[in-house]
Amino acid sequence: MINAKKIEEIAKQVTDSIPAGLKDFANEMEDKTKVVLQRKLSQLDVVTREEFDVQTQVLIKTRAILTELEAKVSALEAKLNVE
């Protein structure tokens, strides 16, 4: 089995061996990429995961109410057809 601490040590050694200039470039690219992604995502018509989850729960409740109302309407129609 691979030891997680050993993997962390190896990753740290690799990271430490990268020249400072390359690290700075990588950090700068990461920052610029985040800015571009945030800008582009803000232009999309998307919702947060939290909002999606809330709306999912609302939809589940609404479907339950709709099913209940459909059953009541069917019962009332049946009652009217009998009379």
Topology:
Elements: H1 4-17, H2 20-43, H3 49-82
Number of strands: 0
H/E topology pattern: HHH
Name the shape in a single word: elongated
Provide the domain count: 2
Q: Can you walk me through this structure?
A:
- This protein has three helices and no strands.
- It folds into two domains: 1-45; 47-83.
- The chain has helices at residues 4-17, 20-43, 49-82.
- By secondary structure, it is mostly helical.
Brief digest:
With about 80 residues, the chain is mostly helical. The chain has three helices and no strands.
Task: Using brief descriptors, characterize the structure shown.
single chain, 83 residues, mainly alpha, elongated
